[in-house]
């Protein structure tokens, strides 16, 4: 907007889970700390850890009786395992106290070894005695465990997974680690240990995966920041014509940006098209010399000094009506409600209409009470109306800003007025609503932010010492052009919707109008224009090759140049 007048469970389900296992998993005798070494280094897997496996696992069944008796005292005849051990266990010889996981109780281990049991079954008994679930052996995700031999499973129980078999790298016989040549299942309890360990193993890998995500996020964020910094410094030295439209009535028509589209309007019709030239809507009416005011995609065309009013929204005409007195100024909400200052000799009226012309409110004013209306603004939702009055009391000039509510807050108030603010010896020629609850009162020495929908209050006063040449704003920014220190120089100051300063930039371009679109500020003077971003970088300075009647923004680095024969849509390049 601008004002020329004032100048934001299971390995099969998640095979990647083993790739992120922490190295401090609980050790199991006979298994190395690093499971990744199983494929390439199976031959050398810790024979001293207690399993006593030979370097060639395929010989496990045929040569089992020769397995390292020095480690756990296994007998050459594995069939003696069950009977010998069961008798000792039932007699309480091995069950007097819980055994440790890692074989810390040498006495218990010795008793087990005398019974002829392997380290694996000793550990199983220890876990059962301690009533603690052991961790599972580290296994590659592509391994589906099959069974141990029938000698290892005297009860003949089948595991939960049955006898599926898969080979893995480093096992030329195709047997899975822990399988015997007959492919019979592990002992049932051991299979349960494997199942129970999956959850703990998955949780153990989470920190590593989280750290990976964090690292990736940091890299992506750094790249984005770099791109944004480069984009903020990018400058353009030329433009290209994207589209040209030839027209016959450019002399009698006016053009402007409405909701990102190109509006063409004259005394008898209006037409809105998108940037590709497709018509959005068109309408006919009868006005003498229309002026246009907009709020987003909603606009009002009116005859200044006369009584005609036409209201249109994103889909076309919303209504047309006549006022009872000549119009001085109007404002429109996004719903199409129209507020107007009407002139009546020494008095004035503030009229508030629905889009079809039905009257919502009428407020009579005079120079004495409360003063002559200078400006007005309607909130986007149409609930609040702000009006500035200028009066002289005791020969002293002052301005007052009244806030009217047409919602619940103003229902029981005189004239629906819910707030009043006085400024001695000041003029307030412009008002604007940035959102439904924030009004900006532009003074001749700065601006005031008035916030609130029930009991509005001044939240911030910003004062400037230099003369204000022009103002501009949108829903997120408040801008002023001030006279500079030297002749022909200016300062551009931009704040956010809370009054915090964003930009203070000097320039020397002799502009005639200014507007803001997103994060870019454009200054125009005939066919010449300059464009700045919110970092204060001038991203373009130049002139259009053809004489223009009007230049305005319709998008980021996109402009419409109105000529004598039509208009051109141009883009910086």
How would you describe the overall organization of this protein?
This protein has five helices and 33 strands. By secondary structure, the protein is mainly beta. The protein has a domain at 15-208. A hairpin with a 2-residue loop joins β9 (308-313) and β10 (316-322). The model is unreliable at 1-204 (pLDDT under 50).
Blueprint (SSEs and pairs):
Layout: E1 2-3, H1 69-72, H2 81-90, H3 106-114, H4 119-130, H5 188-233, E2 239-246, E3 254-258, E4 261-265, E5 269-273, E6 279-284, E7 290-295, E8 298-303, E9 308-313, E10 316-322, E11 327-332, E12 338-344, E13 347-353, E14 359-366, E15 372-378, E16 384-393, E17 396-405, E18 417-424, E19 430-435, E20 438-443, E21 446-451, E22 457-463, E23 468-473, E24 477-483, E25 490-496, E26 501-507, E27 513-517, E28 520-525, E29 528-533, E30 538-543, E31 550-555, E32 558-562, E33 566-572
